[in-house]
Each structure stands twice: as C-alpha cells, then as structure tokens.
Write a structure and sequence with these properties.
Layout (H helix, E strand, L loop, with lengths): L2 E3 L5 E3 L3 E2 L6 H14 L3 E3 L7 H11 L7 E6 L6 H14 L7 E4 L6 H13 L6 E4 L3 H9 L7 E5 L7 H9 L3 E5 L13 H10 L3 H11 L3 E2 L6 H8 L8 H8 L14 H10 L2
Parallel strand pairs: 3-4, 4-5, 5-6, 6-7, 7-8, 8-9, 9-10
Antiparallel strand pairs: 1-2
Helix pairs in contact: 1-2, 1-9, 3-4, 7-8
Enzyme class: oxidoreductase
Pfam family, one: Aldo_ket_red
Protein name: 2,5-didehydrogluconate reductase
C-alpha cells in the first residue's frame, strides 16, 4: 500500500474502498468484510448512503484492530449548520460503533456549510475526528472556505477519472495543501471506460486491465482513489495496482483523454443545484 500524508500529519492510504450505492445492509456488510479480507483498510461511506451501520458492523466483525482502519463519512446537506451537523456526526459515530472518525467531509457545498465546517473544527479539536475536509467543492468555493475558517481542509473529494482529470483544480488544491481525492475513478463505466482503446493498449504492456490502468494513473498523479465494487474478484483486481509503474509516455497518452468536463453533473448548472438542494430539505 502507498500512503499520502495530509496537511495535519495524518497518514491515509492512497487506495480505499467506497460503498456508494450499496444501500442493502446485509450486502454492504458482506462487501466491506470482503474488502477488508482483500487488504483494504480505508473505507469511505456517507450519511446519505444509508449504510453507516453496515460499515460499522463489518469493521467490528473483521477482528482487525480499529487503529489499522481509516474510516471516512460525510455530512449530508439536510444536516448542515453547526448544531445539526454536530449531532449528525455523533449519530454517525454511534451507527458505526466508533469512538472517533478518521475523516469527515462536507458532502456538498450547499446549505449552511460554514456552520457545518465549524462543528467539524470543534469535533476535530475534541479528538472525535482525526481530519476534516470537503467534497464536491469547486476551486472558487474551496478558496472561499479556506480564507474564512481556522483549519484548512485536509481533503477535497471530487469527480476525478481519465475523462475528467481535474488538473487545474488539483494545482489549486496543492497551493493550499489540500489533498485531492477521487470519487468515481471509473466514471461509473461512462465514455466506454472499460473498453477504451488507449487504456487497453497501455494495459497490454503491463498485463493490466483498463480499470487497473485508470487507478494507477490517478495514483501516480497523487490522487487518492476509492473504487467501489460488490464483486470480490474486482476488489482484488482494483487492489493489485502497486506492482507496476506507468512510464511518462503512457502518462502523457492517458492525459489526452481529459475532456475537462463532468461525466455526471455540474454544480454551476442551476437545475443540478435545484435538485441537490431539494434533497437537503
């Protein structure tokens, strides 16, 4: 495993396991146990995923010492604001049967995320959270949050994959010592991710799949990745990305896939904002 050191000194695996869209409790618990058996120690969940309890049960059943894990959750829009956010994080701890969380992120840059962040700052100071950060913050909102809060976010988790590489956004994050983390490293299969000829040709050199090449590309750029799969054989494949190194030529070729556009949605689209904020009411 490779690691990144966050701006507060916290050590985080560069590869983790995400549980987005595994809402069934039994399935999620089984998947997390499978991931742990493969070797994953960083688990990424969220209040909005509805599976924090399942993640907690799997952690407990695994028998792996708590200190070996890096557990992330996210505060949803409906829990924004100082008091509600603080209470919701305490509830997340109870659901996961944990004394502390390794990382808590603001899930979306909507509602009273300033109040949310200050609640997170206080819980961080109290030792309930080891690191705090944000998710889906575009550079403008990230800079704004940094300029007017005491603690700089350790992480910004944003859509990052070969078709939306976030090169400019990553440079801004580096300027402020914020670690970039990818959600959707496979673009959920969009744009022919798993059949793309460029990724396939690169992969043939190393006897690796398109998915492994995509993960290795991001990892070599210093991007934390949290691929999700419900199939153990895919979890194993996604974990097997530390025994090869992409050449500069291959990195440059993959860089040409960047469309600089989201494969999903834009927070600058009023309809998207109306939809997301509607979910928070």
């Amino acid at each position: 495993m490779e690691y990144v050191i966050l701006n507060n000194g916290t050590k985080m695996p560069i590869l983790g396991y995400g549980v987005y869209q595994i809402a069934d409790q039994e399935e999620c618990e089984k998947c997390v146990l499978d991931a742990i058996s493969v070797g994953y120690r960083s688990i990424d969940t969220a209040q909005a995923y509805g599976n924090e309890e399942a993640v907690g049960k799997a952690i407990k059943k695994s028998g792996v010492p708590r200190e070996e894990f890096f557990i992330t959750t996210k505060v949803w829009i409906s829990n924004a604001g100082y008091e509600k956010a603080k209470k919701s994080i305490e509830e997340s701890l109870e659901k996961m049967q944990l004394d502390y969380l390794d990382l808590v992120l603001i899930h979306q840059p909507f509602n009273d995320y300033y109040g949310t962040y200050r609640a997170m700052e206080d819980l961080y100071k109290a030792g309930k959270i080891r690191a705090i950060g944000v998710s889906n913050f575009y550079p403008d909102r990230l800079i704004d949050l940094i300029q007017f809060n005491e603690i700089i976010p350790t992480i910004n988790q944003v859509e990052t994959h070969p078709f939306n590489q976030q090169v400019e956004a990553q440079e801004i994050m580096k300027k402020y010592a914020v670690q970039i983390e990818s959600w959707g490293p496979f673009a959920e299969g969009k744009n022919g991710m798993f059949t793309n000829e460029i990724l396939k040709n690169v992969g043939e050199k190393y006897k690796k799949s398109n998915a492994q090449v995509a993960l290795r590309y991001l990892i070599q750029r210093g991007v934390v990745v949290i691929p999700k799969s419900v199939r153990k054989e895919r979890m194993i494949e996604n974990f097997d990305v530390f025994d090869f190194q992409l050449s500069k030529e291959d990195m440059d070729i993959i860089a040409t896939l960047d469309t600089k556009e989201s494969a999903f949605f834009s927070h600058y689209d009023p309809k998207v904002v109306e939809f997301l904020t509607g979910l928070g009411k």
